[in-house]
Design brief:
Helix content is about 35%, strand content about 20%. With about 350 residues, it is an alpha+beta fold.
Length: about 350
């Protein structure tokens, strides 16, 4: 438009010089050209102003993006995501909008699938749980938790021994990891049994059969008592497990009395009226007994009615169905059922 106004003004001037147009027409063309130039200047100023506003808007947008990124980082700092799923306990009493200090514990998260059971054993028991190089063997363990009228069973394995002993403690602190989730919580008091490798050439006797000098009274020739030194391998309640090789095929006194001693001639009173096994027989060497059908049936029914794990129950049932059953196993079952 401004270019057309300039061209119109130039024609008017040329015509005015030849006297073809009036001065008024020339002034009108000049005024129109000035107005067009003014419009161009205003539009250029408006364009420059718009560009300035665009630049400011871009700067403001960059600032908003920075603020948004800072807000996201702050939100990530405010949201605590646990690395695993578990049970939440010991939650701190927080309020909405409250401040949390660095290192402040907000709650305690317990993974039920990674619980450990801590227990203490004597040094002699610890020596039986390590290998030749002194490392703790990953032996299986069984845990029992008494809950009113029911019993919760769980299984696990030995995983590590404590690095140090606390003040006034003795023995060794051991830890067993549970195999899979179990209805246990930290602080539960459980009964734990470690399944050791089977012992060979041993016998189980009442603890009262062992004298203060570490001997047992064995029946010798002419039904006279003889003091035989034995090595106690295990102690379990009122029962002991001894190395039976020095006593192979011999009978021993189950309950000692101050009236009994080496050299005395006695009349043996055998448990249940059973005859002594012949010296050197398999039954005497391995500590097994033959069960009558009624007794075997009663033991099998007691095991089937127990809350033992299926694998352990089947293993015991297979041993009870054998022609000869370990005497220690029979006594243990009968003690539990009151037989």
């Amino acid at each position: 438009v401004a270019a057309l106004r300039r061209a119109a003004e130039a024609r008017s001037r040329a015509l005015a010089e030849r006297g073809a147009v009036t001065d008024a027409a020339l002034e009108a063309a000049t005024l129109a050209r000035l107005q067009a130039d003014q419009a161009v200047i205003q539009r250029r100023q408006a364009l420059a102003s718009a560009r300035n506003r665009l630049a400011r808007a871009r700067v403001a947008l960059d600032r908003r993006r920075v603020q948004l990124e800072e807000a996201r980082r702050r939100l990530e700092d405010f949201v605590l995501v646990a690395p695993f799923a578990g049970r939440l306990t010991e939650v701190a009493p927080l309020q909405l909008g409250g401040r949390v200090g660095a290192g402040e514990r907000l709650a305690r998260l317990i993974d039920p699938a990674r619980l450990e059971v801590a227990f203490t054993v004597s040094r002699s028991a610890f020596a039986r749980l390590i290998d030749a190089e002194g490392r703790l063997r990953p032996l299986p363990v069984e845990l029992r938790l008494e809950l009113a009228e029911r019993q919760v069973l769980a299984r696990g394995r030995l995983v590590r021994a404590g690095a140090a002993l606390g003040a006034g403690q003795s023995g060794r602190r051991l830890y067993a990891a549970l195999e899979g989730p179990a209805p246990l919580v930290p602080g539960d008091l459980v009964t734990l049994e470690v399944e050791e490798p089977p012992l060979e050439g041993v016998a189980e006797l009442p603890a009262r059969a062992i004298g203060a000098d570490g001997t047992v009274l064995a029946l010798g020739a002419g039904e006279r008592l003889e003091a035989v030194p034995v090595r106690v391998l295990r102690r379990h309640g009122d029962r002991v497990v001894i190395d039976a090789r020095p006593l192979a095929g011999r009978e021993v006194v189950a309950v000692r009395s101050p009236l009994l001693g080496a050299g005395l001639k006695v009349r043996p009173l055998r448990e249940g009226g059973a005859e002594a096994p012949a010296p050197g027989s398999d039954q005497a060497a391995t500590g097994t007994v033959r069960l009558d059908p009624e007794r075997r049936k009663r033991l099998i029914e007691a095991v089937r009615a127990s809350r033992l794990p299926a694998e352990a129950r089947e293993r015991i049932l297979r041993r009870l169905e054998a022609p000869e059953v370990p005497a220690a196993l029979v006594r243990r079952i009968e003690r539990r059922i009151g037989g």
